[in-house]
């Protein structure tokens, strides 16, 4: 793959609600290549959404802050930009679609106007030209009758069509990087598959780079090139999809993979990972996964493991990465 479009270095999100700040996302680092689809997975509350909102510098609350070395995109360090420059990057370079499009589409604005707004922010063109382009974008995301649909409001769309419309609004800005936060979770299985196919097509046609947040490894297996696994605010493993699914090296990723129904012929009972993720206000010392880990060794309770490179560019934050057969 080509050189990275996005380089994230030591990105953290802190919450300042109590006497001492809580680290909700802890020093995330990864690269995203042009045309790459990265699946960001992890249990609910592991920090996936906040990490991606931090990339866009769009945190949901003033009690949260971002720390980090760099988020490099299009020759800029987003963390060093003023708000006006950052606004220009948002949409045009990096866009985001959410699980619940209804709360992110403007109910009082026609879909075409919302797409056109993005187009006109970045291009000198008339309303009429923007409308024509909006129709084209609606066609590209598979909305039937785009000439009519362009004048409709979000509530006139079905759930799947609303998600397509939201993707269209993001695409109107022609971003290089699109973050899709659980874009199919609220949809039925058939529509889910259609939206995933759409994302793949957009990657192929536009060379879009994608971060696909999901808790569903099945979605990742179908759609992604690479996988990043988060646990309690930290990246615990990152690598190519085929390597990570075939040979997870972190006990937590191995547990996630083993919990997948696919694999065998359905004869083995589905495994689950015992225990619960820790509260971020009461993190264990050492490795955050240690209370649930079956493979504890010396140091796991005391020393936080850093991400280290293993083979094929795979990275794992574990003192005792599983051997290639899935055993320690
Ligand atoms: N606005 C907020 N203020 C304080 N804590 C938050 C806020 N939003 C999310 N969190 C906490 O940050 C952690 C990560 O949340 P989130 O990124 O939404 O997880 P995920 O997307 O992986 O489910 C959770 O523990 C959550 O409770
Ligand atoms: Mg989330």
Short précis:
The protein has 328 residues and is of the alpha/beta class. It contains ten helices and 13 strands. Strand 1 (4-15) and strand 2 (22-33) form a beta hairpin.
* Topology as a string of helices (H) and strands (E): EEEHEEEHEHHHHEHEHEEHHEE
Range of strand content = 15-25%
Please outline the major beta sheet. Answer: 8 strands, mixed
Described by the principal axes of the CA atoms, the overall outline is: globular
Radius of gyration: 21 Å
Q: Which ions and ligands are bound to the chains?
A: adenosine-5'-diphosphate, magnesium ion
User: Class by helix and strand content?
Assistant: alpha/beta
How does this model look, in words?
- 30% of the residues lie in helices and 21% in strands.
- It is of the alpha/beta class and 328 residues long.
- An eight-stranded mixed sheet has the order 7-8-9-3-10-11-13-12, with helices on both faces. Strands 1, 2, 4, 5 and 6 form a five-stranded antiparallel sheet that branches.
- Helix 3 runs parallel beside helix 6.
- Magnesium ion (MG) binds next to helix 1.
